[in-house]
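Re: that backbone. Tokens:
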């Protein structure tokens, strides 16, 4: 009986786990960007918020903001991220910005 269960698990359950991982990997975006300091942001619990402006001129708000060393206005970075379904309204000329989840970040 054990000999039948093991091939079943390998053939049907394990490949299913890889499909979700593959989809997430395909949705990863890597771009060079600039950190922007926005103050104040209407929807933020804080009186400040940081955003990233990509080379393609897309402004995003990170949901999992990075380490303090990256919180520098006009800092050039390379980020890998996933888009989320959420957005944030930052008043004035900024408008509504999509929220992203940063997977990797480095200074450039």
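Recovered sequence:
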């Amino acid at each position: 009986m054990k000999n039948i269960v093991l091939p079943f698990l390998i053939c049907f359950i394990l490949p299913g786990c890889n499909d979700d991982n593959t989809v997430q990997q395909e949705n990863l975006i890597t771009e060079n960007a600039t950190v922007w300091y926005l103050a104040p942001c209407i929807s933020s619990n804080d009186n400040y918020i940081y955003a990233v402006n990509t080379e393609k001129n897309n402004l995003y708000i990170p949901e999992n903001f990075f380490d303090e060393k990256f919180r520098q206005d006009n800092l050039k970075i390379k980020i890998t991220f996933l888009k989320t379904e959420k957005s944030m309204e930052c008043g004035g000329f900024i408008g509504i910005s999509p929220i992203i989840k940063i997977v990797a970040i480095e200074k450039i």
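Residues 29-107 form a domain with the OB fold (Dihydrolipoamide Acetyltransferase, E2P) fold (CATH 2.40.50). The longest helix spans residues 2-26.
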